[in-house]
Amino acid sequence: QKEVEQNSGPLSVPEGAIASLNCTYSDRGSQSFFWYRQYSGKSPELIMSIYSNGDKEDGRFTAQLNKASQYVSLLIRDSQPSDSATYLCAVNMEGLTGANNLFFGTGTRLTVIP
Amino acid sequence: NAGVTQTPKFQVLKTGQSMTLQCAQDMNHNSMYWYRQDPGMGLRLIYYSASEGTTDKGEVPNGYNVSRLNKREFSLRLESAAPSQTSVYFCASRPGHNTEAFFGQGTRLTVV
Description:
The complex is a heterodimer. Chain A is 0% helix and 56% strand. Chain A is an all-beta fold. In chain A, the strands form two sheets. In chain A, strands 2, 4, 5, 9, 10 and 11 form a six-stranded mixed β-sheet that branches. Chain A is globular. Chain B is an all-beta fold. The radius of gyration of chain B is 13 Å and the shape is globular.
C-alpha cells in the first residue's frame, strides 16, 4: 500500500511567521518529491520539487528532504495571507503496474492570520 | 500556451447516465493522468497513460474507462454514473516518469 501522510490541519499562523508543513511516505525507494498549493475551488499548482537529501530554497519557500527517515517538509517564511491554501505533498512511487506515478497526501490546510 | 485543458468545468448527471470528460495538453508530454479529489481523501489516481497507445489502471479504476486518443488527448468515460462518482476530476500531464505533473482546471461532477 503506497501512502503519503500529512497532518490535515488546519494550521494557523500569524502573518510574518514561519509555517512548517510535514509529510511522510511509505516507499523507501522514492526519488522525487513535490509540494503543490491548492486554493479553494482551484487546481493544484506546483511550488517546489526536491530530489536530493537536504534543503532546497526558492524565495520564501524551503523544501527539506530526509530519505532515510522518509520525510519531506515545506517551510514558508514571512507567511502572507495570500499563502492561505491547502498544501499537497506528492511523492513519485511505483504503482501496482510497476510504473512510477504521483501519490498525494490529503493536504494540510494553512491559514495565515493578518 | 494553454497547458492542460479540461471540458466541461461543471456537469450534473442523473444516476445511470453516461458521459465523457475530455482532456488535452499542448506541452508534448508523454504521460497523462486522471485523478479524482474528494473531501478528506486527497487526490486518487483513476487511470493513467504512460505514452500514446497505452493505458493502465490506477488506485480507483472501477466504473471508469479511458482512451488515449493521441499524444495530446486523454478522455475519461463514465458508462453508468453513480452517486459515489460525485467528485472533482483533474486531468494532469507530465513530460517524464520522475517529473512534476501539471493539472487542468478540473471538472466538478455531481451525480444525483
